[in-house]
Amino acid sequence: ELDSVSFSRAGLAAQERYELDVFEQLAQESLVIHSEALSQVEDADFAEEAAKLASSQVLAAGAMAALVKSGEIHLEQVEALLEGVEEQQAAE
To answer: Cα–Cα distance between 20 and 13 in angstroms, integer?
Structure first.
């Protein structure tokens, strides 16, 4: 009967060990899945911020180009105005 009890205990211990291994493996797999998901979220956040930065840089470059062109147009208008004044003074 002692052998029967020992055999039963060994069987229960083996079953418990198997179940614990399964739960540990599930926990490790869950950790890997969550880590991968977090990594994907971080990658998506980084990509979004990179896209926003690129967009801001394009808008800033466009604004600078518009400012330069505006200055050129203003300079041309001032030059034309001065030429008109010089022509008017020469005509008098």
So the answer is: 10
Amino acid identity at 75? L
CA–CA dist 55, 14 (Å, integer):
61
Confidence of residue 1 (pLDDT cuts 50, 70, 90): low
Backbone torsion region of residue 33, taken as left when φ is above 0, otherwise alpha when ψ lies between -120 and 50, otherwise beta: alpha
Give the span between the Cα atoms of 50 and 54, in whole angstroms. 6
